[in-house]
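Try this one yourself first.
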């Protein structure tokens, strides 16, 4: 690989694509982007399936933010379809059937759970205690002296939180971080949107065209199906590319442990298995996402047409999502870092290795071993690019 570039970006997801665009456009640098997969867009990649349904290959991505600067930045590369994400939990009903209620748990959920009259009474009691439109945590409710409000907290814990979390993270109730449990909210509102952010929506033509527009710059070269790690030399005191010292910025968005051959051991992650089904019917479910918070082996079912606005009669595609431990097998994708003291200490050892090289910059959920929403990683990439420029 000829070193006819000024900056190297590893990965073409949000972190890499935003950095590449900024370095190329504002920094005037020739940027080479190496992407291991055969497509751009990272986990936000979407495509038409064989039935012509626009699917999100790596699970649903719904853009939402209160950061106007991030929203305006992305508006350079896409127009938006207004989409307000609404999620329901599907769980067994007391009569032996099924029932659905909005999540996060709100005043509507309360009436579904406890019946119209009792739910209304409990809702009025909650609003009297905490105020309307407030998000009150399970911890706050459990600490209230009124046993009826503690009863609401117990219901949410059992029917919305604990079983879903056990599936998502592979933990038993005693292993679940109490601080996580304490933050689970009850929303004292009729607003059944999953997010209350000011800016919400879906890229009008999809996420992949957004990335195509972002990476469409004369100073950017993208190579797909190219693993950057064999090209990087990190054993000496100077970072090399194909054995040649390289002084330009290297923005790495892949897994930090993999970059260094997992020499201290692998960083633990959760991965997801997606089972796509195309059905000969116009609609399968009432919402874009239905969570299965009590039973079923999957965590949720997504029906993409609700999100994308596609109008297709007589066919739809859904995906069932299964969470499990990441083993590092080639076909697996690490999705969620398992954050705890031990794993953070392990990550710190890898980060210390990276910090030996002043021009190597770890960026993104894998490289930084943390979770980012899409807007947050755009903001972080803009910040890093500004520092490099």
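Now uncover the answer:
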């Amino acid at each position: 690989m000829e070193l006819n570039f000024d900056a190297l970006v590893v990965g073409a997801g949000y972190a890499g694509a935003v950095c590449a665009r900024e370095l190329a456009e504002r920094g005037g640098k020739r940027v080479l982007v190496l992407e291991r997969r055969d497509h751009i867009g990272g986990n936000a990649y979407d495509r038409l399936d064989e039935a012509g349904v626009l699917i999100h290959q790596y699970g649903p991505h719904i853009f939402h933010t209160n950061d106007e600067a991030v929203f305006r930045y992305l508006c350079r590369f896409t127009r938006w379809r207004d989409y307000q994400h609404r999620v329901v939990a599907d769980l067994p009903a007391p009569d032996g059937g099924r029932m659905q209620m909005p999540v996060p748990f709100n005043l509507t959920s309360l009436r579904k759970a406890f019946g119209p009259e009792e739910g209304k009474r409990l809702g009025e009691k909650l609003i009297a205690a905490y105020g309307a439109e407030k998000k009150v945590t399970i911890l706050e409710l459990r600490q209230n002296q009124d046993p009826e409000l503690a009863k609401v907290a117990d219901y949410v814990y059992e029917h919305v939180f604990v079983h879903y979390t056990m599936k998502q993270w592979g933990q038993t109730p005693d292993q679940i971080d109490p601080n996580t449990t304490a933050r689970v909210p009850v929303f004292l509102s009729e607003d059944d949107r999953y997010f209350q952010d000011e800016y919400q929506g879906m890229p009008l033509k999809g996420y992949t065209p957004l990335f195509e527009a972002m990476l469409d710059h004369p100073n950017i070269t993208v190579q797909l199906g190219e693993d950057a790690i064999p090209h990087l030399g990190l054993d000496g005191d100077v970072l090399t590319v194909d054995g040649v010292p390289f002084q330009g910025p290297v923005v790495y968005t892949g897994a930090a442990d993999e970059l260094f051959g997992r020499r201290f051991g692998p960083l633990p992650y959760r991965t997801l298995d997606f089972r796509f089904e195309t059905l000969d019917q116009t609609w399968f479910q009432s919402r874009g996402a239905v969570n299965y918070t009590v039973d079923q082996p999957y965590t949720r079912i997504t029906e993409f047409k609700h999100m994308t606005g596609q109008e297709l009669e007589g066919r739809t595609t859904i995906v069932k999502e299964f969470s499990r431990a990441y083993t590092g097998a080639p076909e697996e994708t690490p999705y969620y870092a398992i954050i705890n003291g031990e794993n953070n200490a392990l990550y710190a050892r890898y980060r210390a290795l990276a910090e030996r090289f002043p021009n190597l910059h770890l960026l993104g959920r894998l490289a930084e071993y943390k979770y980012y929403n899409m807007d947050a990683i755009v903001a972080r990439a803009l910040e890093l690019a500004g520092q490099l420029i």
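Discussion: The first strand starts at residue 7 and ends at 10. The mean pLDDT is 94.
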